[in-house]
Amino acid sequence: MSGTFLGMPAFPANAARAVQDSQLRHNLRKATHTIRAKRLSTIAEVPDWRELREAAKAVKDATLRDLDRHLLCLEEQVTATGGHVHWARDAAEACRIVAGLVRATGETEVVKVKSMATQEIGLNEALAEHGIEAYETDLAELIVQLGDDRPSHILVPAIHRNRAEIREIFLRSMPDAPPGLTDEPAALAEAARLHLRQRFLASKVAISGANFAVAETGTLVVLESEGNGRMCLTLPETLISVVGIEKIVPTWRDLEIFLQVLPRSSTGERMNPYTSTWTGATEGQTFHLVLLDNGRTDVLADEIGRQALRCIRCSACLNVCPVYERAGGHAYGSVYPGPIGAILTPQMRGMGSPLDASLPYASTLCGACYDACPVAIDIPEVLVHLRARAPHPPAERAAMGAAAWTFSRAVRLTRAQRLASRLRRLLPRRLPGPLSAWTDTRDLPEVPAESFRDWWSRTQGGPR
Amino acid sequence: MRVALFITCVNDTLYPGTGRAVVSLLRRLGCEVDFPEAQTCCGQMHLNTGYQDEARRLARRFRAVFARHEIVVVPSGSCAATIREHYPRLGVETPRVVELTEFLVDVLGVTDVGAYFPHRVTYHPTCHSLRGLRLGDRPETLLRAVRGLELVPLPGAEECCGFGGTFAVKNPAVSAAMCADKCRAVLDTGAEVLCAADNSCLTHLGGALHRQRTGVRVVHIAEILASTEQDKPAGTPIASGRGR
Amino acid sequence: MSARETILRRIRAAVADAPEVAVPRDYRTASGAGGLGGSAVQDLPGLFAERVDDYRATVLRAGPGEVAGVVAERAAARGVERLAVPPGLPEEWLAGLCDVRLLRDDPPLANDELDRAHGVITGCAVAVAETGTIVLDGGPGQGRRALTLLPDYHLCVVPAGHIVRGVPEAVALLDPRRPLTWISGPSATSDIELDRVEGVHGPRVLDVVIVGN
Ligand code: SF4
């Protein structure tokens, strides 16, 4: 994944800093609460939502089960319709392929439509090394790029910015920003429109991702809102799409499910403004499809963890997550923040760094993400599964071992309880070490004079 | 009806009042209560923190302790969810385990348990009760039938309180921020009592409410449902000593 | 080993133990199968109109003989002086226009010519009532994809008979080999505070004329 996150501290430290940032918390709270209400109301009007969710989950599982066959079918169809298919084992290989394809056109500038896969592989940075400049055209990506910032949300990478901050970024970094620019969202969108118009008309090469790739027909699908996607997919002479191997759906018909669940889950709209589908080389365009592994097959090999590959990147789990709402996306140190990031990043990158090892713990296991997920990824289940594989600090291991020892015989528990009861007046009000985090903001419960079990054995449950 | 009580290690050690309330409530409703004294802990903390082997051992222990019981009542949403949802994943089969309010509404078929609790109460559903066990409105239905009790809705009730077991210690800043928001929502209701079906979350919320000297008391739902007019003088919840 | 071979081998090793999966399609399908067949909507054009309106697009109804009049009125109301026209568009739809220069996309217009057009008029392949979506497939009267992208105003004529209930019906009717554009309202963004505002790169104004009932 992108190198920009390398060397970041672990999640708790990042999150602690974010929690202090009242502007950030205000922005995140406002945005996530706006979208939560919208999502719930557009889902409530779909009478067969539960059935759609079941079908979506099953289609993705079936896809993964026979992924090799579906990929070969996709390759055959894309090739038969005039497209070119490339395979990339990892980020470096994918970047090398794309850079080579761009250079072969003789161009040094490309326009890009927002894509998680290209962010994941750090494509923009890699292209820059080859002397190729990549221009993001999605409004939020533009805000991030102009602000020299990092994305903090899957769908709305600049969710951490409010309108006033966006206006400042535009005035500072967009040379053709209208001088009287206000912070009205419509005015900001208009500024982006003017800024990018000539670039769209002049660009010869575009790079995209895809939301879905239909194996049976070789069709690629991009959902978007602004029309920048259509500009990139339609106008340039060469189109390069970088697509994770898990983006496949087996049949054209399967889209009838996903075109319903994705828009309602992501922006809370009945349908996003624009969905483009194309098959092979279209309307005279040269088309390249780069199929990306980059750790996905490792995820696939984990029986419990592989459900993360069902993800259709709707971002509903981020929008409902109470931890994301307070920590913000940057704390996750990956292009995939929030609950899905907490299960995807450690599987794709491993848990070798303190940050990656802390991600499975960046959740209260409250289950809001699982409820919201349109492909029913049991994120809490995967988190618990990953926690079992994460490295455990020695002090914690010792404490957990001691607790397990105490709980392994009732008599040990009884003894511990009686000891605590006897010392109840002497116990400290503030806990030492890592446990002080508890007593920093909370008082401790009083230890009772008698445990329940002692009361029971004394009274057999009291008067009848 | 004969039931086994799994009191949970937290209630056993820190909240015997909740346990006593469960026993008196169940007996009042005609149940015979067994308390297998070999019981300890369901292993939730170990499981959720990533200590699967320890958790599996505790799960097997639970199975052995309760093997000869037909139905086990648990006054904790998160422990009941751990046993019901996670034990099968650990390969451990158990007898039928139900959370207390489920037992009352679904098994006994009662919604009015004859309680009296003259206070303004707000109910926090807790995540495992809400999304894990899907308790739905069972707890509120029971509370609404309590005489003298005024149930006020908690805005944003479905949102997690930020406890999350070891999360509270591993991610203290986020946990405290979530807790503060939940406490503010509780205070906004004007309730005197915050009620839930899980003392773990109440330890967290009660600890913060106590630290902030809000005067709001936290009370496990069992203690409210166990209260009757003959009990203590009105106004003194059974739960005592919930903060220092 | 090639990247292709490596990836395929990794996949096969990874899923060797994975169980077969059956896909339940119990949702409302195009054939009316699925457990929820009873929810048939009677007034599809009415529902479609309501849903398009929710996107802040303008919806008008016209009788079969009234299209030219409505088109002319819309063009005047939007101040359109240069209107792009795809090949195959019914000529009678244009019959009421005066003082409007028609830019026929045959042979294809250059991008900057298209960019200078004030608007474009098209028909559609299919329309989805529940989501207020029109779908263009590049067929007669719809044109290539850039045609409905660069002009700032899109006037779309939707014959009532093209309106289907939901997404499954539309997917069943459409040909995946054709480039498709699904349009739901004017271009918009949710990128600022996750709140939708209309009007970015695609047409900022969308008028939909439903013909017949
Ligand atoms: S995990 Fe589920 S909810 Fe989260 S982004 Fe992926 S599909 Fe959406």
TrEMBL record, chain B:
InterPro entries: Cys_rich_dom (IPR004017). It comes from Sinosporangium siamense. GO terms for molecular function: oxidoreductase activity. It comes from the Bacteria. One of its GO terms (cellular component) is cytosol. Residues 3-84, 121-205 form the Cysteine-rich domain. This is Fe-S oxidoreductase. It holds the Pfam family CCG.
TrEMBL record, chain C:
It holds the Pfam family LUD_dom. Residues 112-211 form the LUD domain. SUPFAM superfamilies: NagB/RpiA/CoA transferase-like (SSF100950). Signal peptide: none annotated. InterPro entries: FTHF_cligase-like_sf (IPR024185), LUD_dom (IPR003741), NagB/RpiA_transferase-like (IPR037171). Gene3D superfamilies: NagB/RpiA/CoA transferase-like (3.40.50.10420). PANTHER family: LACTATE UTILIZATION PROTEIN C. This is LUD domain-containing protein. It comes from Sinosporangium siamense. The lineage of its organism: Bacteria, Bacillati, Actinomycetota, Actinomycetes, Streptosporangiales.
